[in-house]
Design a protein that fits this description.
Layout lengths: L12 H13 L3 E7 L5 E8 L11 E3 L5 H8 L3 E3 L2 H7 L1 H6 L4 E9 L3 E10 L8 H23 L11 E3 L8 H13 L3 E6 L4 E4 L1 H7 L3 H4 L4 H4 L6 H13 L3 E7 L3 E9 L3 E9 L21 H16 L3 H16 L3 E8 L2 E8 L3 H7 L2 E2 L6 H8 L3 E3 L2 H7 L11 E9 L2 E10 L7 H38 L10 E8 L10 E7 L4 E9 L4 H19 L4 H15 L5 E9 L4 E7 L5 E3 L5 E3 L4 E2 L13 E4 L5 E5 L11 H14 L5 H9 L12 E8 L20 E3 L7
Parallel strand pairs: 2-7, 19-30, 23-26
Antiparallel strand pairs: 1-2, 1-6, 2-3, 4-5, 5-6, 8-9, 8-12, 10-11, 11-12, 13-14, 13-18, 14-15, 16-17, 17-18, 19-29, 20-21, 21-22, 22-23, 23-27, 24-25, 24-28, 28-29
Length: 732
Amino acid sequence: MTSTGGPATGPDPVGAAVAETVRRTGATIGALYLRAPDEDVLCLEVLCGVPNDLAAPWARVPVASPAPVTDALREDRLVWVGTHDEMVQTYPRTAMALPYPCALAAAPVTGVRPWGTLLLMWPAVRPPRMSPREQSNIAANCRRVARLLEEAAASGQPPAPCEQPRVLPVETGRRTAGPALAAADFAERLPGGSCALDLEGRIAFLSTGGAELLGRDAAHLLGTQPWQSLPWLDDPTYEDRYRAALISREPVSFTACRPPDQWLDFHLYPDASGISIRIVPTGSAPPPSPAPRGSPPAAPPARAGQLYQLMHLAAALTEVVGVQDVVDLAADQIMPAFGAQGLVLSTADAGRLRITGHRGYPGHVVERLDGLPLDTDFTPAGQALSSGIPSFFANPQEMQRLYPEAPLVSGKQAWAFLPLIISGRPVGCCVLSYERPHTFSAEERAVMTSLAGLVAQALDRAHLYDTKHQLAHGLQQALLPHTLPDVAGLNVAARYLPATRGMDIGGDFYDVIRLGDTAAAAVIGDVQGHNVAAAALMGQVRTGVHAHAHVGASPDDVLSRTNRLLADLDPGLFTSCLYVHLDLARRRARLASAGHPPPLLRLPDRRTAPVDVVPGPLLGIDPGASYPVTEIPLVPGLLLALYTDGLVETPGADLDDSIAELAHRLADADDHDLDLLIDSLIGPAGPTRQRTDDIALLVLQAATAGDLTAGAGRVGPAHSPCVRISQPGPGI
């Protein structure tokens, strides 16, 4: 394994295996992504069939982002996208930055551990479906690459992601010098002009006729890219045609005007080694579009690759949620896109620039840069924000000449200070820095400036989201019980898990109410909706249940009175609720339900089943509703599990089957530690999984005869081993 990017210069078995896979599968493009050892990011390690700058938007891909290479790794499966229409539907962000017809496969490279992903691409002319034989062939090649990676790791040379991917050629079996000279003579005899580009877009061959039509000597054009050496071809439209031919491997043509009035047709014919071009003069010109009067001079056109890269980053910025998401995206995609080695993202807060995220800077440097005044002209960041104009410094001398009082503490050698401004309001500043002097071209400055506007909008939205999220989380924390009371003879554990999508407050709640030395009540419920109104109603329901329980009301009366309260308030929301009165002296439990899922009962012999509780209507529907009471014996060792529907409702699954499966997990669970028991009940809906609804779970255990006085007279989980409560997670 080589440790630096660019073309491989020594033995590279992994790269050779990737190139061979490209040949064996008939693919035109191949790429190997490796998972970074200290980040949750896939890094482009090996590239075949296209130049490095074309793959720049995907040099670093966060594992959590929606993309074929990440889905293949996370889900451990082959991802196949047969057409561009399918790409648009499944991966719109990728399709935006890769608007060319092609087919794509991404397969996980997995051995003793998941190493990364192998990406293969074909022209769109291939069949839209992949055969089982092709799938097996790709899987076998992925296993081979995984073995090579494991052998390298075992030999003390573990693969490490490169700063730049190794670009490898795809062998095409070219002929010897004799036939090559004959082919050149053949091209010279053809009318018009002939030209050949390599995979980097450089002119590798130019016939005499081609040089005459292009208006330049062949010696000055060989080894250059046409859009760089011929100003009249410096248009992103023409470069885009080259990119389209390179990726789709289909013929492409366009017409361009060589000044002053010579129109030329360019016909591009691509293959795995490059692109052959026929240049033919044409007498007709496409109709010109009139320029508006008084229009300002146009800025230099951005490269097609930069435009697609900007579109890719813009699409990614629309998907970020919180401030940390903006920081991660800037570090993982914006830094590599511009070849930067450092990033500082600051936000305007109380007249100062507060650093919200950074990469490539040690902690002591960040501490010195944090909290600089917002309106000062003595620092480049302050000047950029006050003027609204980006600042670019190609070397430290330029920085010192304009800002002699600004300390150079980072060791960086070039900087871009991009003000983040929305409607004249400063949001923050984004600083990209380089470890070597770096000249910023006009195109690069234009793209950075455009991107700064998108980052400003994303950062402003993210701040608003985080503020609302913190408010919602604080309200949620205040409404849910922080501790549960100790009740002699009763062991209790509870868990709340918020939905993983969205930031709104959930309506699930639970509580345990101490009603004396030998009695308690347990309640669990779910308010309709996920918003502030649902949270407020949740608080009212808890208060009502507490008040009625403490005056000695029976379970049916507690629900009936709470129901009438909600009907009088008329909040427009309904609530399911299960109330359990526990008489520990008489060893009995009495239950009443308002449309809530039935609790699960596990006997000491581990027989487990739902309790047959006759439910009444949801709270808040019918003021005169009644709620039947069910009584069960509270034998020592008995377990009672109360839960909300988020634990058992799964799209496409039968509810009864889900409850039966939960009962099976409860029957098999060890009850020596109720926290671990709750973990086993939550199972597939655990903290790391995606959930569309909140989950509340409350487990009650009748203590055995030897534990009847355990924990008596003590309050809270910090003091009693028999009362446990897991606090809500960080999300809402």
